[in-house]
Amino acid sequence: MISSNELETLRQSCDQFISINSFFSTSIDKEQALSFLNSCDVGDNIEPVLFEIDANPALVTSKPFADVSLYSEFTDESEVLFMLGSIFRLKNVKRRSDGKVWIVRMTLCSDDDHDLKQAFIDMKDRFLSSDINLQTLVKLLWEMGELNLAEKYFMRLLEQLSPDDPLLGDLYHDLERLASNAGNLNKSMEWRQKAIALKNQKQPTSKSTIPKQSSST
């Protein structure tokens, strides 16, 4: 179930990339998935939506998905779990023939997806100089409102930095502001505390000295 506004946003985003900012639980059993919708109450401005995902395990390596049925509380749900940060290309959004359910068709992309790479190249050519780096590119995504993608690539950059990298403090502050923009104040405070701790760690500790007093005889 999603809101009517969210559905309209999806309808306007066909052939674009969307990123999932949490673990994405799905089922390979279509009838089972539809049964979840049938058991939900549809209120005002709420739309029943079924996501159909084409995911080729031979093409996706860095953000895998897995059949977790054996570990699920309900083993008959045939649950497949997509990892946080998975990126999909939205193919189309159509109402089913019976008019009861909207069908959203998506394809799981790999990080090496040609079109995804080309999208970054196009942004670089249009907006940035030739000496672009990942941090600058992520900030552009941020300005474009792609907060989920921005966070994904900020985290990737964070994994690449060494603990003494001079960019680390700036990256913590970027993540702090990004989380704040996304309305996640708790996460924003966590990144702020990391930035403060790093700053304190880099500051030299001052040692107080007590001048020696000469003894008079």
Count of individual helical segments: 7
Number of domains: 2
Provide the spatial order of strands within the biggest beta sheet. Answer: 2-8-9-5
Secondary-structure element pattern, one letter each: EHEEHEEEEEEHHHHH
Summarize the structure.
This is Tetratricopeptide repeat protein. The protein has 217 residues and is of the alpha+beta class. Helix content is 40%, strand content 19%.
What topology does this entry show?
Blueprint: E1 2-3, H1 4-11, E2 17-19, E3 24-27, H2 30-38, E4 46-47, E5 49-54, E6 65-67, E7 79-82, E8 87-95, E9 102-109, H3 114-127, H4 134-143, H5 147-160, H6 168-181, H7 185-202
Describe the structure in your own words.
The strands form three sheets. The chain has a four-stranded mixed sheet. α5 runs antiparallel to α6. The protein has two domains: 2-109, Toxin ADP-ribosyltransferase, Chain A, domain 1 (Alpha-Beta Complex), CATH 3.90.176.10; 114-202, Alpha Horseshoe (Serine Threonine Protein Phosphatase 5, Tetratricopeptide repeat). Residues 127-132 and 206-212 have low confidence and may be disordered. It has seven helices and nine strands; from the N terminus they run βαββαββββββααααα. The radius of gyration is 24 Å and the shape is elongated. 40% of the residues lie in helices and 19% in strands. The chain is of the alpha+beta class and 217 residues long. The longest helix has 18 residues, at 185-202.
Key structural traits:
single chain; 217 residues; alpha+beta; Toxin ADP-ribosyltransferase, Chain A, domain 1; Serine Threonine Protein Phosphatase 5, Tetratricopeptide repeat; 2 domains; 4-stranded mixed beta sheet; 3-stranded antiparallel beta sheet; 7 helices
